[in-house]
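Bug: token stream looks shifted between consecutive jobs. Job 1:
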Amino acid sequence: MLKIALVGVMAILLSMLAGSVKREYGFLVSLCAALLIFSFGLGKLRVIVDELRNLEQAIPLDREYGEMLLKMVGIAYLTQLAVNLSRDAGQGAVAGQISFVGKLSMLFLSLPVLKTLIETIGEMLR
């Protein structure tokens, strides 16, 4: 975590310095830093996936639920990254639309779980 914090602070300083020369340079520095920090996170993703597989073996659940959860987390992180980059570039309207579509994507992905939940509740009420 210390590495990530240092990269973030250095990126902010470099972005401010480069942005004073030309705004596009500051944005490029921010983009490179975001991708570098994201790559650090990908290493930890392997540990999370392994733990989810262990949990899946311990608890008899459908594999599709675990995959769905990972997809939703991925959508959330990618949406947040795109929103932050868009806002940093001064594109608030684009950031809002990316956020909206990300939320719709997660809702669409969760529809099978919602359907199963409603069916289960319906069976219990009968």
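Job 2, same session, no restart:
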Amino acid sequence: MKVVRVIPCLDVDKGRVVKGVNFAGLVDAGDPVALAAKYDQQGADELIFLDITASHEERDTTVEMARAVAEQVFIPFTIGGGIRTAGDARRLLRAGADKVSVNSAAVARPELISEIAEEFGSQCCVVAIDAKRTNTPGINSGYEIFVKGGREATGVDAIRWVERAVALGAGEIMVNSIDRDGTREGYDIEMTRAVADAVRVPIIASGGVGGVADLAAGVIDGGATAVLAAGIFHFGEATVADAKKALASAGLTVRPAEAWAATDMGEAR
């Protein structure tokens, strides 16, 4: 059985980690670099940083943050938000990020996915989708893609878009339910499963975790290969170790949370 990854997500706005409900009502959750170092020490498998207002405000994701994080953590991390060209991706990867995540800019110009995948490899290109349930005619899956931090409907069918993104070179898909984001009601399992059934790349379940008990469903029922959470970690309700214990108790394979601390580099820290 594949190892399930636990990924804390850090939504960043103006240099601070924030958390809200349905992409609104943002509350400060701390410094991104300090939180990244904490999750690294707790045994997180990866980290994802999303500058949630970069596309809406048409500004660049900060390269300085990527560089600062790379100096503090030793696990892979992804940065997304405001990446519009392969050059944007190049700057972040050179600053220390392991992957980049594209969303709004890729919907507007799908060739961006191919440009990043061809230059850096598909493994570096994560396509994030923000989707809502809809009855809009022509969207047969029932899930519509939204862009600009969930502010703008596109009329694009989420499943058709995911299939196209993978065909263009996306190496991983992050599935975020706007309906569930910050609600603590658990992942939208039906949407996650629909995406997982449509493509053969790793899937990250995102949006709605209220406690560690929600995580296993994203894998067992949703078909995800990684589980992402934010608020439960940021506000001290659970640790990465708690999350991995819950997953292991559900019969899933995880890397021990304490494994990193036992390595020579961990001791040197």
